[in-house]
Write a structure and sequence with these properties.
Layout (H helix, E strand, L loop, with lengths): L1 H23 L12 H25 L3 H12 L2 H15 L8 H31 L2 H19 L8 E6 L1 E4 L2 E4 L2 E5 L3 H10 L1 E7 L2 H7 L2 H15 L13 E4 L6 E5 L6 H9 L15 H7 L1
Antiparallel strand pairs: 1-5, 2-3, 3-4, 5-7, 6-7
Length: about 300
């Protein structure tokens, strides 16, 4: 009977962990993981992580603590996943006209590492529920864990930390502005005419000092520019650096301006693209949670 329970726990744990890793895969406009090879790679790693988590239940039940120690050692190898993803994404970033930036890449690499640990935890808990309970309890545990993981995966977006609205693109002589935020000096009439005809401006107004500090991070601003360019296209080639989307800060208020020349000149969807840009973990700043930050902002 014990052997049957071991096999039930093992099979249920591995299946639930692998399926949850599949549900966590998202291939969208970011084109990563690629299909089918990137998907196969991550599903294979998910299967291995699920097997490691599920096999721990029989090992613990048989008091095979040496085996548990070996499994823990094997699990630490998933730290190399972050390095692998980071190096690959950095190479891919060199081919984008508007790169993601190092902060965005580091966040993606952390996510792929963390998801393997979530798979191990899922298979461990589901396998335990089956071994010490029954298959129905294991299925219930898998569903609860799926909901919890979906919640963990939903981080903050720009719309939650700032008000995003249209900004007027204008020139003062050769100087390009979005409202009162200065961007750059453009000398040729052709480039200025392109901005006048096709350019769109966005103003991002942080809700408080925490959000102002987050938006001051250059990596966060690179992520916003990349997101907007990836979703709406970009009127730019490798030899037209003057058409690169740029974000600049108003040093007095902390507002951030974006100027971009999209292929699809649709203001509504540009605002949506900016609003739905994820807030990067490395950029997230909370000075108001400290006594010094609160007193300084008064």
């Amino acid at each position: 009977m014990a052997i049957v329970s071991y096999w039930q726990a093992l099979i249920t744990g591995v299946l639930s962990g692998t399926l949850i890793r599949y549900f966590m895969l998202r291939r969208d406009y970011r084109q990563y993981p690629s299909y089918p090879h990137g998907v196969v790679t991550h599903l294979s790693l998910g299967f291995i992580a699920a097997f490691i988590g599920a096999i721990a239940i029989p090992a613990l039940a048989e008091r095979e603590f040496t085996a548990v120690t070996f499994l823990a050692l094997a699990a630490t190898q998933f730290r190399e996943v972050r390095d692998m993803e980071r190096m690959m994404l950095q190479k891919l970033d060199q081919t984008w006209l508007v790169p993601r930036g190092p902060d965005f890449i580091e966040g993606m690499a952390r996510v792929f590492e963390a998801r393997n640990y979530l798979v191990m935890l899922t298979s461990l808990l589901v396998g335990g529920a089956v071994f010490w309970g029954n298959v129905f309890l294991g299925v219930a545990a898998a569903l609860i864990l799926l909901l919890a993981i979906r919640k963990l995966m939903s981080g903050k977006i720009v719309a939650q930390i700032a008000h995003v609205r249209e900004g007027e693109v204008r020139f003062e002589g050769a100087n390009l502005y979005v409202e009162n935020i200065h961007f750059m000096n453009l000398g040729t009439e052709y480039v200025k005419d392109v901005y006048r005809q096709k350019g769109l401006g966005v103003i991002i107004e942080p809700f408080n000092d925490d959000e102002r500090a987050t938006l001051s991070n250059n990596g966060q601003r690179m992520a916003i520019a990349h997101n907007a360019a990836a979703l709406l296209g970009i009127y730019k080639d490798v030899d037209t650096a003057e058409f690169t989307p740029i974000l600049r800060r108003d040093l007095e208020t902390g507002r951030v301006g974006l100027v971009i020349i999209p292929i699809e000149k649709d203001l509504y969807y540009l605002l949506e693209a900016v609003k739905k840009t994820p807030v990067l973990e490395s950029a997230l700043s909370t000075p108001l949670k400290t006594s010094v930050g609160r007193k300084a902002s008064d």
